[in-house]
Amino acid sequence: MNLTVADVRLTPILVADPPLLNTQGVHQPYTPRLIVEVVTADGVTGVGETYGDTKYLELVRPFAERLVGRQVSDLNGLFTVADEIAVDASRVSGQVDVGGLRGVQTADKLRLSVVSGFEVACLDALGKTLGLPVHTLLGGKVRDAVEYSAYLFYKWAEHPQGVAAEKDDWGAALDPAGVVAQARIFTERYGFTSFKLKGGVFPPDQEIAAIRALAEAFPGHPLRLDPNGAWSVETSLRVAEELGDVLEYLEDPALGTPAMAEVARATHVPLATNMCVTTFAEIKEAFTRDAVQVVLSDHHYWGGLRNTQQLAALCRTFGVGVSMHSNTHLGISLAAMTHVAATVPDLHHACDSHYPWQSEDVLTERLTFEGGRVAVSDAPGLGVELDRDRLAFLHRRWLEDDGRLRDRDDEAAMRVADPEWVTPSVPRW
Ligand code: GKR
Ligand code: MG
Question: Helix, strand, or coil here: 321?
Answer without folding.
Answer: strand
